[in-house]
From TrEMBL:
<dbReference type="InterPro" id="IPR001296">
    <property type="entry name" value="Glyco_trans_1"/>
</dbReference>
<dbReference type="Pfam" id="PF00534">
    <property type="entry name" value="Glycos_transf_1"/>
</dbReference>
<keyword id="KW-0808">Transferase</keyword>
<keyword id="KW-0328">Glycosyltransferase</keyword>
<dbReference type="InterPro" id="IPR028098">
    <property type="entry name" value="Glyco_trans_4-like_N"/>
</dbReference>
<dbReference type="Pfam" id="PF13439">
    <property type="entry name" value="Glyco_transf_4"/>
</dbReference>
<protein>
    <submittedName>
        <fullName>Glycosyl transferase group 1</fullName>
    </submittedName>
</protein>
<feature type="domain" description="Glycosyltransferase subfamily 4-like N-terminal">
    <location>
        <begin position="17"/>
        <end position="185"/>
    </location>
</feature>
<dbReference type="GO" id="GO:0016757">
    <property type="term" value="F:glycosyltransferase activity"/>
</dbReference>
<feature type="domain" description="Glycosyl transferase family 1">
    <location>
        <begin position="208"/>
        <end position="344"/>
    </location>
</feature>
Length: 379
């Protein structure tokens, strides 16, 4: 039997971010009879379909730094004495493959760009005093300098450039694989389903054109520009916001601009496919995002998209065909991009979305290559 793939992730959790990708990668391997283990700090799905494959190492509490650092150390000890191909979604030294979603020092800097000077200084002070932001760059370097590391997996060319800029000695190890979408969940809707979704999220929308935004960090993801762009768009264009962040400052912004009647906050949305079905366009003018899976999900749902050149997912947007890419982040530029997206033909958009199954097949091919390279050559 071939060596199992040891998927390393903080939480066994099907519902969130990188953890969700790791979980679905394991499900992909399970469906194909590939041996694997999911090595985690905490199992949030103890009775799920992966239960017999999960190795729960535990983590210390209460702070984020203590939880993550303790899990990383435990995972390092585990893979050092366990047969398999370590495929880590975390900063775990000794892994053969590490999925790197960005360089932490670059994230800290670029995520502040465009903020008002007072807010930028406040965040810089807060981050400087946060021990987690000192630990992560050191651990990141420790992991990438590991002799065991063979491949660095990144979700975008933008992230590849960051890694190569910060760690030029490891640039030859970098492989770009765009994040894929579960196209069985995210796909275009028929007219009846679209009408039902519009009625749910904007009752009585009628002929209004609904532009969507989704994210849990409103400031970095560019919600203020989405709201500001409404002043440069016709009155029938409205904004539907999904996400669990604090909406109060953005309600105030909308009121100050006189567009409060054109903005609706839906809160955290569980059924994102239906959310996309309600939309005529989707807008995420982010200040910084190594990829931005929500853009790929919108494309898979057949929705024209707007994003910024500071998102890795801009690489999958065909400007003027499947959406528009903002080269500058201001309300006027976002308004022009939204207007452009609203005029596009939706019929072929979904076909350009990266499929999650293709992504996982490439993940597995990387693991196979590592396994093959380890195999001793017979005389």
């Amino acid at each position: 039997m071939p060596e199992p793939v040891l998927v390393i992730v903080k939480y066994c959790d099907p519902s969130t971010g990188g953890e969700g990708v790791a979980y679905r990668f394991c499900r992909y391997m399970q469906s194909r009879g590939v041996p694997f283990q999911l090595v985690c700090g905490r199992n949030k799905d103890p009775h799920g379909p992966l239960a017999e494959h999960v190795v729960e190492l535990g983590m210390l509490r209460p702070t984020r730094l203590l939880k993550y650092a303790s899990f990383f150390r435990r995972a390092e000890r585990y893979i050092a004495c366990t047969r398999g191909v370590p495929f880590s979604f975390e900063y775990v030294r000794g892994a053969a493959i590490v999925r790197q979603t960005g360089v932490h020092a670059i994230f800290l800097r670029r995520s502040l760009e465009g903020l008002p000077e007072k807010e930028k200084r406040r965040k810089m002070r807060s981050r400087w005093w946060n021990l987690y932001n000192r630990y992560v760059p050191a651990q990141e370097r420790r992991v990438l300098d590991s002799a065991e590391l063979q491949r660095i997996l990144v979700p975008s060319g933008m992230t590849r450039d960051e890694v190569c800029q910060s760690y030029p000695q490891h640039c030859h190890k970098v492989t770009v694989i765009h994040n894929g979408v579960d196209t069985e969940r995210f796909h275009p809707a028929d007219e009846a389903a679209r009408a039902a979704a519009r009625e749910r999220y904007w009752p009585g929308a009628g002929a209004r054109r609904i532009v969507g935004f989704a994210g849990n960090i409103f400031m970095r993801k560019g919600l203020a520009h989405c709201i500001g762009s409404l002043r440069g768009l016709p009155e029938d264009v409205v904004l539907l916001v999904a996400g669990g962040d604090n909406a109060a400052p953005y309600r105030q912004q909308a009121a100050a601009l006189g567009v409060e009647h054109r903005v609706r906050f839906a809160g955290a949305v569980a059924d994102m496919p239906q959310f996309f079905h309600a939309l005529d366009a989707f807008c995420l003018p982010t200040r910084y995002d190594p990829f931005g899976l929500v853009i790929a999900e919108a494309v898979a749902a057949g929705v024209p998209v707007v994003t910024s050149h500071l998102a890795g997912s801009a690489e999958i947007v065909q400007d003027g065909v499947t959406g528009a890419v903002c080269r500058s982040l201001d309300d006027s530029a976002v308004a022009q991009a939204v207007d452009k997206a609203l005029r596009l033909d939706r019929s072929g958009i979904a076909a350009s979305a990266p499929d999650e199954r293709d992504m996982f097949a490439r993940y597995l091919a990387l693991a196979d290559n590592v396994r093959a390279a380890r195999r001793p050559v017979r005389p």
